[in-house]
Specification:
Blueprint (H helix, E strand, L loop, with lengths): L15 H10 L4 E3 H11 L3 H10 L3 E3 L14 H4 L11 H8 L5 E2 L1 H11 L3 H10 L3 E2 L8
Parallel strand pairs: 1-2, 3-4
Length: about 140
C-alpha cells in the first residue's frame, strides 16, 4: 500500500505547526521513528497523529525503533545492530507471548514496555518476537 492509499480519518486536517516540525526533522525526505516520537512529545500530541500527518504529507517513516523497517541494506534493523549476538534474557519469550492479543498481534507499545521491563533494547524484543513467528500490529505511528 502506498502512502496515497493509506486511509486517514474522514475528519483529518493537517495541523501546519505539526507539519512544519515533521519537515524539520526529515532526513533525506523521510521521518525517523525516534524523531516522530520527539515531535509528539514536544507538541503534546499522540504518536499516531504525527504518523498520520506524515502520511498526509507523503513522508515515509524510517528507522523503526523495533528494527522492523527503514534500514537500507538490511531487511531488519537488528541485523545492523547485531542484536542476534545478544543473550536472550530468561523469561523474555514468555513475556512476549503473554503480550500477544487474541488476534495474534503484538502491539509495538507492548514491545516497548517489555524492553523497559527487561532493561534491553527494543530491537531485541522485536528480534525475538519475529523469530518466534509473532506479528506486530499496531504500530504507534500507524505505519502498520
Amino acid at each position: 500500500m502506498t502512502l496515497a492509499e493509506k486511509p486517514l480519518p474522514s475528519d483529518f486536517v493537517i495541523d501546519e505547526t505539526l507539519a512544519a516540525a515533521i519537515r524539520v526533522h526529515c532526513k533525506k525526505g523521510k521521518l525517523p521513528c525516534a524523531s516522530a516520537f520527539v515531535i509528539a512529545r514536544e507538541h503534546g500530541v499522540t504518536p499516531l497523529l504525527v504518523g498520520q500527518t506524515a502520511d498526509a504529507l507523503q513522508i515515509h517513516l524510517t528507522r523503526c525503533q523495533l528494527g522492523l523497517f527503514g534500514y537500507p541494506g538490511h531487511t531488519k534493523g537488528w541485523a545492523a545492530a547485531k542484536i542476534a549476538e545478544r543473550a536472550i534474557p530468561e523469561g523474555l519469550e514468555e513475556a512476549i507471548r503473554a503480550a500477544v492479543d487474541s488476534d495474534g498481534n503484538f502491539a509495538c507499545v507492548k514491545a516497548w514496555e517489555i524492553a523497559a521491563r527487561f532493561g534491553i533494547p527494543k530491537m531485541q524484543v522485536a528480534y525475538v518476537a519475529d523469530h518466534t513467528g509473532i506479528r506486530f500490529s499496531p504500530c504507534q505511528l500507524g505505519a502498520f
